Structures are given as C-alpha cells and as structure tokens.
C-alpha cells in the first residue's frame, strides 16, 4: 500500500457542507430548476433568452445549488425550487422497486449529496425524498461492499461505473483495505516503494513531452 | 453566470485527486478577484440607490450579487487551502528539497509557506529524542532490518554513509546500505528496494 | 493502519524458545530478557525469537494453539456459530505467518496449520461482511465487534466506519430541522 500524505478535506455528507471540501463545492455547483418569485433588476444579462434588463418575476431558470440556497428564504419567497426528475415520485417508485438497477453515476453523480441538500427547500415531499435516498443507499450497500471486497487485481472500472460519488468512495476504501492485506500476506508489506506522487509526476512529465 | 472561473480552479485541483500540484493559476485568481471587485462596486452603488431613493426592489439583486461574492470567496479560499495541503504532503514525499519543476508550480507565498513549514518541522524534530533529534519522516513502515539491498535506477553521484565511506550511486549498480539512509531516495525513485 | 504495523505489534507477543547458547540476563527498556542457557526453554518476544532463529541460535516452541487438532476444532466451531468465537491469540494471523515463514521446521504439520488458519480467517471475514450488511439494513446506531482481532478490524476499518457514517447522515435527513443552517 502507499502511504498517502495528501489528505483532502472530506465532504460533509447529508445536510451539512464542508466549507473547504472540493467535493462539496462541486456538489453545490449542480444545477436545479428554479422559478423566480421576485424580479431581479439589472441582472437580465444572465438569462440568455431574456431581452429585458431585468430577470422578471416568474422566470424559469436553472440555478446552481449554492445560489438557490443563498437566495432561498422561508419567510419571503424570492424563488421556488423544483425537484429534479430523479427525486420525483416516478423515479422514487423505480428506486423503491430495485435500487440496484439504476445508474446513479448518470443520475448524479452526487445522487445522495444533492438529494440531502434539496431538503433545505421545504418541499412537501421532503419526508419521502429523505426516505427514498436512505432506502436506496441501504438497498445498494450489499452490492457496493461485495464488489469492492471481491475484486482483486482486476480492472474495476466496470464495477464503479454505475456508482454514486459516495459509493465510489466506499468502493475505494474497501479496495485499499483488501489490497494492503493481500500485499502483506504475500510478504510485500515491508517493501519500500517510490512515492506514488513522485511516479505520477514523472508519468505526467513524459506525457507532456510527448504531446 | 457568475463564479464560473472560480469553480474552474476547483475542478482543476479535483481532477488531480492523487495530490499532484498543478501550476498556480495566477491568471484565473486575478480574474476571480476582478469579478469580485465588480460585484462589490455594483452592490455599493445599488445599496446607495436603495437607501437614498427608497428602491427596495433592488434588494433581491443585491442579495444575488452578495451570494456570488461569498461563493467566489469560498472557491478561492478552498483552492488556496487545498494547495497548502498538497504542498505540506510534498515535504513528506520528497524531503526538504523540492525538484525545480515542482517549485516552479508554486507562487512566492507558497514557497515561503513551504520554507516555514520545513523550519517548524525541523525544529520539532530537533526537540525530540535527546541531543540528536529524531527524524520522524523516516521509518514510515516498521523496519525489519537495519540494512537493505537497493538497486540504482539512475545516476545520482557520490553518497556518503554513516562510517564516512563514500559510494558511487551509478545506474544499475546494486548496494547493501543502511535502511534509514536510503528511505528518502527510494521514495524519490532514485533507488529501488530489492527483496531477495 | 498498514498491516506491517499490525505485524510489528504482533512481534511483541512472547513465544518460548530453546536456545543453544548461554548469555546472562539482558536489561532492556521493554523488559528483561534471559538468562539464556543451552537446552533450557525461555520466553522471549517474537521479534527476538525470529532473529535468533535466523542465525540458528535457537529452536522455537510453537504456541499451544498452533496445533492442527486444536485449530480444526476452532475452525468447526467458527463455521457453526453465527457470531465470532473467541480466538486463542489476538494476533493469530500474524503469528502464523511469521512463525511458519521463518521456523516451519520447528512446527509439526506446518502446511496443515497454514490451511486451517486461512480457513478460519476466511470464515471470520465472511461473517464480518455479513454483519456489516445487517448493520446497514437494520440501520443500527452502533456496532459492537466482540472477539475480533486487530488485523481483522484493520482490513475493513475505514470502509465500515464510513459506510455507517453515511448511513447515519442519510438517516438524520429524516428529522427535519436537525441540520444546522449554514450560510454557504
């Protein structure tokens, strides 16, 4: 195994975000279908289709999660947020029937993260959404675990293809536990190796030279 | 939309998940700061207008820009912070002297930070284990023996070991050396640990 | 933790050796060793036993549990029970590997022991996975892992902790208002 000295800030997971987490910043960049309940004077240029200097009340536009979260207020409605399709009832039924058949990478890739964040927007369907993402996680867990613990020394890209971001993290952790144990069992644990950072730098340099 | 440049910075780091340090994006940072300046100035004048002329319909727009300011701030702070985590890791992977091509990727303040980190780590290590100090970047794995067999992967020139003997590290030559002397060179990819 | 660190800890366990040399008591920070007399059994830490063995200074007496019949009993019990059975050594896996790799000639039925220990390990790891899955499906709030050894926990530590953490966070979503409000 390689001792990694670089440990990035982990994502908050659930309702909370970690301010410095790169993953959370990219998660909060996911776009949500919104409707303005107020005019935004002088910002019309942000909306390609609009020809007025303002964003008018009742405009349908996509906004990143961070902006929707920042503008949203319970008391004074500035905008309302629609549910993306994979959190609506139709898809919830599909997940409920068999969570394992769904390609969460294509749906997400931050399916659990975005779903949890949506709960900030007081939708009447919130309890069902929260329940659906929890049950999806539970229903898919066995498969995530088994594939991460059984694949040894093989190409894992097909195994992770349909996994959500969180599931991929779990998959990698399972793999690294398995790999370092197998290394030890084969007597390779005491082997000193070059830092993976160093070897990757070298690979990149070679690639740059070839370009 | 605002803040696109800022998130580009984050994406660039995120793509290199293994901790490599990409070149410092001075230009992008400058553009983000310019956007922030513009947002701030627009808000200043709109706030004045809202106050003096009672134009309360401007408030949502002001809030909109304010969110963008905070977002830019978060992205830049996270960019700089994550780079520091990577730079700190370099001290452990490469040792206290960084190769020129990596130093080239750091801005002046980052180089300064690296030097300060290096110094405080050295001070800490000197304070350990009596007069000699203790190099805590050594023996990252429990050693099995004091000496190990190594092969040279490239020409590295002369190398002095504990007892004062100088050996020549020539490509493909093989040596039996004190483990603690080699560990750093193995991590840097100069030597290779040979297991019989 | 890296498995080599777990192995390092296992090397502090003691084992009996029969030295073929004499040496007075040695006083070390970690405890006194010896005295050593030819033919007289003495307990030493595994790291020393292996070092002496490699230099042909001693014969190693295998620990009591490292015995084909006893291990077979443990294996059958482990397969029969649903829970983890108490194991005779907290470092059974590491000690088996260390002693069999360096002192197989002192251990009767070494190959059989290797297979038995591997079987016990596999059975226990399979159980560990099964229980991880049931923690998640039953949404357990805390996990109790009795009778597991350090090496076993170590292979699954981050995976298990993070999968329980994610489950906990997704479950907290069910209680509205539990999340602190954040400004970013």
TrEMBL record, chain A:
GO terms for biological process: mitotic DNA replication initiation. Residues 93-185 form the GINS subunit domain. It is found in: Nucleus. It holds the Pfam family PSF3_N. It comes from the Eukaryota. CDD domains: GINS_A_psf3, GINS_B_Psf3. Keywords: DNA replication, Nucleus. GO terms for cellular component: GINS complex. InterPro entries: GINS_A, GINS_bundle-like_dom_sf, GINS_Psf3, GINS_Psf3_sf, PSF3_N. Residues 20-72 form the DNA replication complex GINS protein PSF3 N-terminal domain. The keyword Nucleus applies. Coiled coil: none annotated. Belongs to the GINS3/PSF3 family. Component of the GINS complex. The GINS complex plays an essential role in the initiation of DNA replication. This is DNA replication complex GINS protein PSF3.
TrEMBL record, chain B:
InterPro entries: GINS_A, GINS_bundle-like_dom_sf, GINS_Psf1, PSF1_C. One of its GO terms (cellular component) is GINS complex. GO terms for biological process: DNA strand elongation involved in mitotic DNA replication. It is found in: Chromosome; Nucleus. Residues 144-195 form the DNA replication complex GINS protein PSF1 C-terminal domain. Keywords: Chromosome, DNA replication, Nucleus. It comes from the Eukaryota. Residues 41-128 form the GINS subunit domain. Gene3D superfamilies: 1.20.58.1030. Belongs to the GINS1/PSF1 family. Required for correct functioning of the GINS complex, a complex that plays an essential role in the initiation of DNA replication, and progression of DNA replication forks. GINS complex seems to bind preferentially to single-stranded DNA. Component of the GINS complex. This is DNA replication complex GINS protein PSF1.
From TrEMBL, chain C:
Residues 2-61 form the DNA replication complex GINS protein PSF2 N-terminal domain. The keyword Zinc does not apply. It comes from the Eukaryota. GO terms for cellular component: CMG complex; GINS complex. It is found in: Nucleus. Keywords: DNA replication, Nucleus. Component of the GINS complex. Required for correct functioning of the GINS complex, a complex that plays an essential role in the initiation of DNA replication, and progression of DNA replication forks. GINS complex is a core component of CDC45-MCM-GINS (CMG) helicase, the molecular machine that unwinds template DNA during replication, and around which the replisome is built. This is DNA replication complex GINS protein PSF2.
């Amino acid at each position: 195994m390689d001792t990694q000295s670089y440990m990035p800030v982990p994502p908050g997971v659930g309702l909370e975000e970690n301010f410095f987490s790169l993953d959370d910043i990219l998660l909060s960049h996911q776009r949500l279908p919104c409707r303005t309940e107020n005019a935004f004077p002088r910002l019309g240029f942000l909306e390609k289709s609009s020809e007025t200097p303002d964003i008018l009340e009742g405009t349908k536009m996509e906004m990143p999660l961070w902006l929707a979260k920042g503008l949203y207020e319970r008391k004074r409605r500035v905008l309302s947020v629609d549910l993306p399709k994979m959190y609506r009832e139709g898809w919830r039924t599909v997940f409920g029937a068999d969570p394992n058949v769904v390609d969460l990478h294509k749906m997400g890739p931050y399916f659990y993260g975005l779903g949890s964040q949506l709960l900030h927007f007081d939708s009447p369907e919130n309890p069902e959404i929260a329940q659906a993402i929890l049950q999806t996680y539970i229903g898919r867990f066995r498969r995530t675990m088994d594939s991460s613990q059984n694949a040894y020394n093989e190409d894992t890209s097909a195994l992770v293809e349909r996994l959500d971001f969180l599931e991929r993290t779990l998959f990698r952790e399972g793999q690294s536990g398995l790999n370092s144990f197998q290394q030890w069992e084969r007597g390779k644990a005491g082997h000193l190796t070059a830092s993976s950072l160093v070897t990757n730098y070298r690979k990149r340099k070679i690639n740059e030279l070839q370009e | 939309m605002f803040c696109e440049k800022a998130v580009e910075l984050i994406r660039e780091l995120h793509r290199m998940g293994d901790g490599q340090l990409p070149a410092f994006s001075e230009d992008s940072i400058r553009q983000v700061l310019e956007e922030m300046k513009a947002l701030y100035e627009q808000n200043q004048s709109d706030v004045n207008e809202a106050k003096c002329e009672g134009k309360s319909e401007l408030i949502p727009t002001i809030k909109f820009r304010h969110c963008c300011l905070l977002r830019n701030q978060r992205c830049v702070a996270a960019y700089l912070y994550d780079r520091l985590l990577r730079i700190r890791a370099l001290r452990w992977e490469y040792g206290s002297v960084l190769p020129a091509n990596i130093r080239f990727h750091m801005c002046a303040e980052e180089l300064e930070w690296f030097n300060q980190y290096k110094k405080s780590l050295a001070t800490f290590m000197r304070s350990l284990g009596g007069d000699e100090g203790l190099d805590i970047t050594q023996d990252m794995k429990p050693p099995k023996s004091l000496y190990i067999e190594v092969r040279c992967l490239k020409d590295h020139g002369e190398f002095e070991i504990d007892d004062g003997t100088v050996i020549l590290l020539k490509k493909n030559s093989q040596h039996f050396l004190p483990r603690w002397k080699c560990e750093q060179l193995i991590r840097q990819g100069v030597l290779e640990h040979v297991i019989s | 933790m890296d498995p080599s660190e777990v192995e390092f800890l296992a090397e502090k366990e003691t084992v009996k050796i029969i030295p073929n040399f004499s040496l007075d008591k040695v006083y070390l920070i970690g405890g006194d060793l010896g005295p050593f007399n030819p033919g007289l059994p003495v307990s030493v830490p595994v790291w020393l036993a292996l070092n002496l063995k490699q230099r042909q200074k001693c014969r190693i007496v295998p620990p009591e549990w490292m015995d084909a019949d006893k291990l077979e009993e443990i294996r059958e019990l482990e397969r029969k029970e649903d829970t983890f059975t108490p194991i005779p050594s907290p470092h059974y896996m590491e000690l088996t590997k260390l002693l069999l790799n360096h002192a197989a000639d002192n251990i009767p039925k070494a190959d059989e022991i290797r297979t038995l220990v591997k079987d016990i390990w596999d059975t226990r790891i399979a159980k560990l996975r099964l229980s991880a899955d049931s923690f998640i499906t039953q949404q357990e709030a805390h996990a109790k892992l009795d009778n597991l050894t350090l090496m076993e926990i170590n292979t699954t530590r981050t995976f298990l902790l993070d999968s329980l953490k994610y489950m906990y966070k997704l479950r907290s979503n069910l209680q509205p208002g539990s999340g602190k409000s954040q400004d970013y």
